[in-house]
Amino acid sequence: MGDLPETRLRRGLHLAIGVIAGTHLFAVCLPSLLVHAEVYRSVAVELVAFALVAAVTGVAGFAGWAGRARWWLFAVLLVAAALALAGLPPEYLAGPPEWSFGVVSWAGILLLLDKGFGAVALFMAGHLAARLVLLAATGDAPSAEIADAMTATAEFLLIQLAIVLAATLLRRIAVGVTAAARTRERLRTAEAVADHLHRDRRERYAELDVVPLLTELAAGVLDPTDDGVRIRAALAAGRLRRLFAEQDEVPDPLLHALRACVDTAERRGLTVYLGTCGMRPDPPLPVRRALTEPVLTVLASARTQARITVLGAPSAVTVSVVADGDRPEVPAPPGITVTSVTHDDRHWVEATWQR
């Protein structure tokens, strides 16, 4: 699916607010800091605070992540705010030399935007309350400057809150779009799986001769006492039982499929021995069908007994069967080497697959 709408929107919001904060930081705050350098207790402290705010803004805005480092970045931001105020004489708290209030708010918004509107509003209220308490405690700034600063601060915070509110609403919309996209993707996946299973079942059942055989028997076209009809019925029954066995979760699917073939033959009264020798790879389903098809053919025409042996090698599997009865027409499926030998009424067939 790629990036989800919610993820893309989150990155875009962080980048947009990061651009606004960076522009405010370098186009407004840095010139103000440099112009009023003589009023600070320590310009170096102010520059350190500026650098810390810029680093937090860059990481949270332009890098577009916070994650587990969110609260460490928040702690760095609080240290930067404290340093910016520590280097500023109290009488300038409401004047132009105080550069940090707005950018600290922007950085806090970037760090808390993922937490929702309530977290951002709480941070901004606490940030403003701390500044008001500091102004009230010092009492050195002129009343006119305080009034002007409060008016400008209120306007500034309202703009920030409006941006955060809009971002929150957009995120809610993106969450809904993301949920719809995930639902659509799940439906597409389920539909593709269902189509694949349906095609697979149709291909499996297309190989069976059960329906035409039963139809012709019911219509009286075929004679159940005929040897050819009985062989055809035994072969169809073996394929059907093998098809059912393919649905089972077992450690050795090839041996499980052969046991299903043996079970069909034993129901007809045959005595069948099944043995294995050697370690072998697990062939895929088409190969297992190809290896068991000659066995099914021989068992369908066998009269009294049969012997099946599975031989394994690191890169090959061989299935051989010896049985009595009429000589069968053994198929040679693609990718399988089939060898057959007949002596009197004994027939030996071997099917080999090389990985």
Q: Can you put this structure into words, describing what you see?
A:
The protein has 355 residues and is α+β, with helices and mostly antiparallel strands. It has helices at 5-35, 43-62, 70-86, 100-112, 117-138, 143-206, 210-219, 227-245, 253-267, 285-301, and strands at 271-277, 305-313, 316-324, 337-343, 346-354. The chain has 10 helices and 5 strands. It has 2 domains: 5-181, no CATH class; 223-354, Heat Shock Protein 90 (2-Layer Sandwich), CATH 3.30.565.10. The protein starts with a helix and ends with a strand. 64% of the residues lie in helices and 12% in strands. The chain has a 5-stranded mixed β-sheet, covered by helices on one side. It is rod-shaped, with a radius of gyration of 41 Å.
Number of helices: 10
Largest sheet: 5 strands, mixed
Range of helix content: 55-70%
Radius of gyration: 41 Å
Beta-strand portion reads: 5-15%
Strand order of the largest sheet: 1-2-3-5-4
Distance between the termini: 36 Å
User: Tell me, what's the shape?
Assistant: rod-shaped
Q: What is the number of domains?
A: 2
The secondary structure category is: alpha+beta
- Unreliably modeled segments: none
Mean pLDDT: 83
Instruction: Give the H and E element order.
Output: HHHHHHHHHEHEEEE
DSSP summary, beta strand count: 5
Task: Please write out the topology.
Elements: H1 5-35, H2 43-62, H3 70-86, H4 100-112, H5 117-138, H6 143-206, H7 210-219, H8 227-245, H9 253-267, E1 271-277, H10 285-301, E2 305-313, E3 316-324, E4 337-343, E5 346-354
Parallel strand pairs: 1-2
Antiparallel strand pairs: 2-3, 3-5, 4-5
Helix pairs in contact: 1-2, 1-4, 1-6, 2-3, 2-4, 3-4, 4-5, 4-6, 5-6, 8-9, 8-10, 9-10
